[in-house]
Amino acid sequence: MNRRDMLISGLAAAGTSLLPGNSNATAKQNKMTQVGVFPPGFLWGAATSAYQIEGAYREDGKGESNWDRFVLAPGKIKNGNTANVACDSYHRYREDIALLKALNLKSYRFSIAWTRIQPTGIGAVNQKGLDYYKRLTDAILEAGIRPFPTLYHWDLPQELEDRGGWPNRDTAYRYAEYVDIVLKALGDRINNWSLFNESKAFTQLSYWLGVFAPGRKDPLAFLKATHTVNLAHGLGFRAIKAVNPKINVGSVFDVSPHVPATDSDADKAATSAMEKLSNTWFAESILTGEYPDGVLPPDQQAALLGFQTGDDKIMHADLDFVGLNYYSLTRVTATKESNGIPGMHLKADWAVGPYEKTDSDWVIYPQGFYDILKRMQLITGHRPIEIAENGAAYNNQPDASGQIHDPKRIEYLRSHLNALSRAIADGVPVRAYHCWSLMDNFEWAEGYSQRFGLTYVDFENNQKRTIKESGYWYAKVAKENKVI
Ligand code: FCB
Question: Three-state SS for 249?
Fold first, then answer.
């Protein structure tokens, strides 16, 4: 099941037209800038996440995560795949750092598996887990690359899932404890930390739509999870600053321009509500301590979230930078039926419109990258932005000589980087771009069926990595600091 098709469970018929958010004023301005050229010092990188690449799922004292458990349930993952081995990066990390070097990249976004640090998510620390990330970090630094870790990229200790997972408020406090342990061990060698990856995506897909671990389909549990994650941001932020106030702390938000399916008032109103739930429910609430209006019925909001007196102060965090992930746009249709969230009668999906799509069926819409950056700047203000993910699935296989020709990925990256350069020229303070992904990997519920890598991985035979044509192209872009 394509997770984007299931973005929001809704029953209404699909609308018929799209009204992409475009602006004439910016189009005019863009003509005056040199499209595709990046500012000096711009940081080029690539991204991965622990569960998607590491494998070694039972090694060196690692505990069981919710994904280790979820992949075993029949029918949850395409072709019954698991990430027990994945890219085996736990053992091959030096090879993977060599890939980053070969691609001329200067920033590596990876994530830390909580279950390697605290096998059950509570108490006892596993020194071997900390040692692994020390080795990894030191090797990244030795290669002259900036380590850019994310503390939570969706793999929760199963024990905490059993205790209610993210809908359980206590998980925020467990998270802060884990963050404190990691920072005390690694804070001396890493200056930029992301608290979470894509709070919206994982809370929705895990607790509302049931397509990610632990597979729950409970919209009200999803709402509770959003609040716990916001609290965890504030608690995690302060845990890091307590270790060292000079460390830069940010978080990575998945964002997407939302367009009404038609220009009816009902579709427009539905779009406004859904847009806030998707794009600002986390970022704005964390940065201001207040939830945006116009999403939940005001008289029910506190009860729906489990919001307690003082929570505004707990969740507030003046992040040092903001990470944004952009893939596609979202279309919203008003419906008669509720989608399960009180007050919301709408359906939102990602895989529609008169646009070309990638192999994972995601609409290709580069102008949306520009539009969403301008939109998010209204929330993030002066803070530096890092693009933590952007990329495309194309499943090209090696040709007879073993080369991988993936011209569509090059085209995707070229058009998106051009849009990004226009946003920067128009004043959005973006300082880094990370392509998703350094290499093909375990794509969650899609298993190994969707290849997002700049590098091909031979999962079936020998784990051999082969840089794709797009990888060589991206290496040149990184070297020349401009789109070619
Ligand atoms: C993002 C996730 C990342 C990967 C890409 C394709 O939403 O953060 O782990 O799955 O999509």
Answer: strand
Q: Which two tokens stand for residue 249?
A: 């702390």
CA gap 414, 191 in Å, rounded: 30
- What is the bridge-based pairing of β-strands 258-260 and 330-334? parallel
| CA angle centred on 165, ends 159 and 169, rounded to 5° | 120
Cα-to-centroid distance, 313 and ligand 1 (Å): 30
Give tens-digit pLDDT for 181-231: 999 999 999 999 999 999 999 999 999 999 999 999 999 999 999 999 999
Question: Which residues, in sequence order, are bridge partners of residue 323?
Answer: 252, 386
What distance lies between CA 260 and its chain's CA centroid?
24
Give CA–CA dist 65/421, Å, rounded.
39
Question: Mean pLDDT across the chain, nearest whole number?
Answer: 94
Atom of ligand 1 nearest to the CA of 444: 10
The catalytic residue among 198, 275, 284, 446 is: 198
Q: What is the pLDDT of residues 452-476, one digit of tens each?
A: 999 999 999 999 999 999 999 999 9
SS3 119: coil
What is the mean pLDDT of the segment spanning 359-372? 97
On the CB side of 447, CA atoms within 13 Å amount to 14
245 in Cβ contact with 313 (< 8 Å): no
Domains of the chain by start residue, with CATH: 3-480 (3.20.20.80)
Choice from 325, 350, 434 to test ligand 1 binding pocket (greatest atom count within 8 A of CB) = 325
Q: How far apart are CA 449 and CA 280, in angstroms?
A: 31
Mutate to test the pocket of ligand 1, among 389, 434, 452 (most ligand atoms within 8 A of CB): 389
Give backbone dihedrals phi and psi of 4, rounded to 5 degrees, phi first: -75, -30
Q: Kindly report, residue by residue over 415-431, the tens digit of the pLDDT.
A: 999 999 999 999 999 99
pLDDT of res. 33: 60
Q: Ligand 1 centroid to 49 CA: how many Å? A: 9
DSSP string covering 435-457: EE-SS----GGGTTS----SEEE
Is the CB of residue 197 below 6 angstroms from any atom belonging to ligand 1?
Answer: yes
With a 6 Å cutoff on the Cβ, whether 49 touches ligand 1 is yes
Tell how far the Cα of 455 is from the centroid of ligand 1, in angstroms. Answer: 16
- As given in the structure block, the two tokens for residue 98 are 């060599």
Beta carbons within 10 angstroms of residue 35's beta carbon: 15
More confidently predicted of 368 and 20: 368
Does the annotation mark 198 as catalytic?
yes
Tokens 């290709």 appear where? 364
For residue 47, how far is its CA from the centre of ligand 1 (angstroms)?
10
Answer yes or no: 54 catalytic: no
Q: What is the pLDDT of residues 10-61, one digit of tens each?
A: 322 222 233 333 444 444 444 446 899 999 999 999 999 999 999 999 999 9
